[in-house]
Specification:
There is one protein chain. By secondary structure, this protein is α+β, with helices and mostly antiparallel strands. It folds into 2 domains: about 1-50, no CATH class; about 55-105, no CATH class. The protein has helices spanning about 1-10, 20-25, 35-50, and strands at about 55-70, 80-95, 100-105. It has a 3-stranded antiparallel sheet with strand order 1-2-3, with no helix packed on it. The longest helix is centred in the middle third of the chain and has 14 residues, at about 35-50. It is elongated and about 70 Å long.
Length: about 110
Amino acid sequence: MVPFLARFTAHGVESGDGESRDRQAAALPGVSGTSDEAKQTIARALAEVGQARTWNLMIDVIAQTGHYGPNAQNLTDFIPEGEKRYWLHIALDRDDGTVLGTQLEEVIE
């Protein structure tokens, strides 16, 4: 198993486009189930855990609109009228904190 992982990581584990998946699958010649689909499935699974230098964060944002009543005294007196929900995905480099990518996704329930 160790030589297999060494071959796999030597090819540059990265997820994304089809070309990188093909390179990852090429690093898996001795895997039983030699179809390209089986190799790509294994390559994708290992790519997800192989990103040792990246932190992937997901922030769940819930934004409410509304108003305070005329006699409001504190935050619990807020009357919500509408709500939107978003997921913010952020990829950070572990070594220097550089933002590698962001994606904002509206959640529709």
